[in-house]
């Protein structure tokens, strides 16, 4: 079995002080993907930057205090790549990949957007460039006998069952028809699989993000925007998927919760020996 968790930490330094470090010490995950770390590696405490038992890859944004993605792996990666070959975004701290035996693992923080603003334009440019890259990644991985999982905060709720108040958000960034159609292309044209939805086909949710405003968390007024998006061969081996929702509002260390999937997949170390 091989377990992968993904979570937007909403600032890694702050999350580490509020419970992330304890969660990491207790998790059974083999790989943990982080988004919105908001820190350069040198700004992180030693135990957060290089936690015991983990090989850490941190990618920060050229704009201080923004974005940032990381991957923690119990097995040393064979290689890594930052960005996806698009000059506008390769320094933005939004995408990193590592190679493990038989598997490419990526951590993605897709722009959130904001309707009728330059932020939405940025999101649309990112999506336009990222889709062909996903096709390229799929084909390269297949040629080398690897599967792919792109974990992270995709900042799009794909279907009505993926957010509580979908009727009121049809003109909101994250649930726009154009964004949802683009995500459908990731699945239908590029051939990837939404693993959590496959394992939980009916919904609602399971939600992975709740606003800090009001009583969104207490009322489970959430959005499902954090995904494991995989190639079909890995999706077929997905065994369980859970959102590690905090027991109470006070125990949250991010406005997102970890999304953790266990695959019937040889551990990377076992694959290397086989």
Description:
- Belongs to the DNA repair enzymes AP/ExoA family.
- The protein has helices at 12-18, 20-26, 46-49, 118-143, 177-188, 195-199, 232-235, 268-273, and strands at 2-8, 31-35, 55-59, 69-73, 79-82, 95-100, 103-109, 147-153, 193-194, 226-230, 238-243, 259-263.
- With 274 residues, the protein is α+β, with helices and mostly antiparallel strands.
- It has one domain: Deoxyribonuclease I, Chain A, CATH 3.60.10.10.
- The chain has a six-stranded mixed beta sheet with strand order 3-4-2-1-12-11. A six-stranded mixed beta sheet has the order 5-6-7-8-10-9.
- The model is unreliable at 268-274 (pLDDT under 50).
Key phrases:
274 residues, alpha+beta, Deoxyribonuclease I, Chain A, six-stranded mixed beta sheet, 8 helices, 23% strand, disordered C terminus, Exodeoxyribonuclease-3, hydrolase, metal-binding, Endo/exonuclease/phosphatase, manganese
SSE inventory with pairings:
Blueprint: E1 2-8, H1 12-18, H2 20-26, E2 31-35, H3 46-49, E3 55-59, E4 69-73, E5 79-82, E6 95-100, E7 103-109, H4 118-143, E8 147-153, H5 177-188, E9 193-194, H6 195-199, E10 226-230, H7 232-235, E11 238-243, E12 259-263, H8 268-273
Helix pairs in contact: 4-5
């Amino acid at each position: 079995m091989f377990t992968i968790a993904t979570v937007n930490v909403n600032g890694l330094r702050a999350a580490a002080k509020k419970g992330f470090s304890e969660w990491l010490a207790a998790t059974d995950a083999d790989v943990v993907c982080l988004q919105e770390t908001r820190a350069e590696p040198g700004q992180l405490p030693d135990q957060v930057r290089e936690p015991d038992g983990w090989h850490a890859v941190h990618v920060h944004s050229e704009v201080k205090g923004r974005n940032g993605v990381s991957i923690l792996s119990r097995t040393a990666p064979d290689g890594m790549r930052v960005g996806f070959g698009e000059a506008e975004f390769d320094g933005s701290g939004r995408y990193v990949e590592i190679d493990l035996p038989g598997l490419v693992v990526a951590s993605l923080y897709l722009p959130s957007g904001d309707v009728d603003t330059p932020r939405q334009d940025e999101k649309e440019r990112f999506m336009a460039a990222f889709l062909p890259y996903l096709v390229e990644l799929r084909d390269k991985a297949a040629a080398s006998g690897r599967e792919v999982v792109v974990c992270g905060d995709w900042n799009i709720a794909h279907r009505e069952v993926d957010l509580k108040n979908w009727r009121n958000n049809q003109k909101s960034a994250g649930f726009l028809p154009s964004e949802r159609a683009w995500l459908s292309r990731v699945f239908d044209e590029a051939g990837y699989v939404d693993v959590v939805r496959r394992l939980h086909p009916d919904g609602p949710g399971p939600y992975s993000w709740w606003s800090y405003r009001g009583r969104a968390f207490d009322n489970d007024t959430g959005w499902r925007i954090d995904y494991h998006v995989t190639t079909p061969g890995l999706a077929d081996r997905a065994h369980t998927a859970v959102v590690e929702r905090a027991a109470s509002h006070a125990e949250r260390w991010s406005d997102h919760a970890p999304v953790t999937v266990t695959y019937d997949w040889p551990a990377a170390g076992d694959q290397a020996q086989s």
